[in-house]
Amino acid sequence: MIRFLLNRLFLIVPTFIGITILAFAFVRVLPGDPVLLIAGERGVSPERYQMLLEQFGYNRPIWEQYWSYLSGIFQGDFGTSVSTKRPVIRDFLTLFPATLELSFFAISFAILLGIPAGVVAAVKRGSWYDQTLMGTALVGYSMPIFWLGLLLIIFFSGMLGWTPVSGRIDMLYYFPATTGFMTIDALLSGQDGAFVSAMRHLILPTVTLGTIPLAVIARQTRSAMLEVLGDDYVRTARAKGLAPHQVIGVHALRNALIPVVTTIGLQVGVMMAGAILTETIFSWPGIGKWMIDAISRRDYPVVQAGLLLIALIVMAVNLIVDVLYGLINPRIRHT
Amino acid sequence: MSTPVIVADPNAAPKISKLIQLREFWYYFSVNRGAVIGLVVFILLVLTAIFAQWLAPHSPIQQYRDALLSPPSWLPGGRPEFLLGTDAVGRDILSRLIHGSQYSLLIGAVVVTISLTVGIIVGLIAGYAGGWVDTVLMRLMDLILAFPSLLLALVLVAILGPGLLNMMIAISLVLQPHFVRLTRSAVLGEIGKDYVTSARVAGASHLRLMFKTILPNCLAPLIVQATLSFSSAILDAAALGFLGLGAQPPTPEWGTMLAEARQFILRAWWVVTFPGLAILVTVLAINLVGDGLRDALDPKLKRS
Asked: Do B178 and B225 contact (CB within 8 A), yes or no?
């Protein structure tokens, strides 16, 4: 098992280096002088230009620049935002819990609905249930989620007035961000109704961000179940006279879940992209909206660091899923 | 008694077998009702795009100043000449949607052409050459796939500058690794087979071996992937348009229309609803066709 772990860790080293090179190259391939980009649109005096050039090391050889960029990353230095003048990593860490909280709710929503839906569709293959569920899944899979979010606002916030339009909590509540997770902070604050308010703000963004993962998980669960249901050990379990729910729930589902876990892991990348759209629609103060704002403000250090950090998160999650996969399925550990 | 003499026509055999193949393909494709519906919708969309100029009742950029945010014609206050209502500057939404189909189909076609061509060439080279060329190319593809595709496209557009063409280049770049991987693995599966060896022994050149001998036998998964990429290209393009980085106003691109409509959502639902519906229907139709193609072309599923 330890060899398997080390092997996986070793495999991501080239990916990690590649990601950092790409993020490093990003600022250099931008049209225009990087110093002028940092200095802003008003221009600089020649002395200040020289100073900035030396400060950022643009006069040094390119591999030396990359090396200092890489060693900066290992020391937690991801650059400084042009617009806020704060270290990028500090803004990232403040905003990331918001994205994490939303993603957690969205993926839970997708798993809790998607797996049962897929199982039911597979067990009742070809039935009315199956066709409706899989038809709905294909619609969800094809959904432009930025439009879905707007429709949900029109219907549930505009027409019915059930849910808030934007933000993470009502303005009346104020408490320190102890953990950064609004639902937990609301509970900790002990203020009446704060937790309910936070949850109500989460409903529409959760559905918006969770729809595509939900569709993918439902489809994947169905096809994995169908494969397993035809296997010999399921027939044996049936022949033994086990109750259908035991055959399906214990013997079939447990094995069918193996490919589903991989699918769920792959959804993290999809969710990071979806978070950009969802957070923009619902004014959710997470890293997706932060990236979009940085692009429109031409705050390139933020865009660069955001790209790098999101790719590293996706890479880390894929590694974790890989290891989990090895844990639940010993067969692949030794290949 | 005379027995009919069968004349062996060397050209007849492949022609007939192609026809049989096509018929067999259509048989498996048409069993899937969803796929046929998707195909019909897609053909209608293509026709809409071709005849947009004659189908659209108004110009897509003409602003009717007396009819700002006019509701759809069947609602109170709606005007009969604006079937789906007008947007905030008085442009007819139906006409804009009809013209928008041209952009979406164009984006899909261009993106798939670029990423398919580049992907096939790179994949053929990687699979055929092997060794360090293969390793370097595949590492590069893994690297592109390590980023969420929309995020990478977004950053690329931020570098290249917003606009229709840059957006298509960016989306092509992030979709093309899928084609590389598929082509490479298909090439690796075929390259050891006897017919390839015999062609090589017969003296076929590298290019001929790559494109004429091996490639035609790897087409099935590429066709399916091309269909699915067509729909994701449209979806990603609409998302970038929505974020203000794709086609720029007043282009009647569906995502861009949604971006312009965002601030009116609580006052005029129709400016938001119809462009998104157009995106959904288009993407859904293409995905249905893709599912049908996969079932019809994948021999593994066919038997079950």
From this structure: yes
* CB within 8 Å: A142 and B265: no
DSSP string for B54-77? HH-SS-TT---TT-TTPPPTTSTT
What pLDDT, on a 0 to 100 scale, did the predictor assign at position B1?
Answer: 45
Instruction: Give pLDDT tens digits for B47-79.
Output: 999 998 888 888 888 888 887 888 887 888 778
Chain B within 8 Å of A215 (Cβ-Cβ)?
Answer: no
Is the pLDDT reported for residue A204 higher than 90? Answer: yes
Q: Is the pLDDT of residue A245 over 80?
A: no
- Average pLDDT (B193-210) is 83
- Spell A240-264 as b/e; 16+ CB within 10 A means b: eeeeeeebbeebbbebbbebbbbbb
**Among residues of chain A, what percentage have pLDDT more than 90?**
25
* CA torsion through residues B70, B76, B82, B84, sign: positive
E-strand spans in chain A? none
Question: Closest chain B residue to A19 measured between Cα atoms?
Answer: B143
Nearest to A147 among B154, B231, B279 (CB): B279
Peptide bond between residue B72 and the one before it cis (omega within 30 degrees of 0)? no
Q: What is the dihedral of CA B11, B17, B21, B23, to 10 degrees?
A: 90
Contacts (Cβ under 8 Å, ≥6 apart) of A220:
A118, A259, A260, A263
Q: How far is A327 from chain B (nearest CA, A)?
A: 23
Task: Give the DSSP per-residue string, A173-215.
Answer: -----SSS-HHHHHHHHT-TTHHHHHHHHHHHHHHHHHHHHHH
Per-residue pLDDT tens for B76-135? 877 878 888 888 888 888 999 999 999 999 999 999 999 999 999 999 999 888 889 998
Q: d(Cα B148, Cα B152) in Å, to the nearest integer? A: 6
Residues of B at the A interface (Cβ-Cβ below 8 Å)? 34, 139-140, 142-143, 146-152, 154-155, 158-159, 161, 231, 235, 238-239, 242-245, 255, 258, 262, 265-266, 269, 272-273, 275-277, 279-280, 283-284, 287-288, 291
Calculate the CA B207 to chain-centre distance: 28
Question: Residue A7: its pLDDT value, please?
Answer: 81
| Reported ipTM | 0.85
d(CA A118, CA A225): 8
Whether the model pTM is above 0.90: no
Dihedral of CA atoms B112, B114, B119, B125 in degrees, nearest 10, equals: 150
pLDDT in tens, B210-261: 888 888 878 888 888 899 999 999 999 999 999 988 888 888 899 999 988 8
Taking only the tens place, the pLDDT of each residue in B75-84 is: 887 787 888 8
User: How many CB atoms within 10 Å of residue A193?
Assistant: 12
Using CB atoms, pick whichever of A147, A295, A315 lies closest to residue B154. A295
- Measured between CA atoms, how close is B304 to chain A, in angstroms? 10
Contact B143 A19 (CB under 8 A): yes
**Helix, strand, or coil (residue B91):** coil
Going by the DSSP 8-state scheme, the letter that residue B218 receives in this structure is: G
Q: Contacts of residue A269 in chain B, CB cutoff 8 Å?
A: 147-149
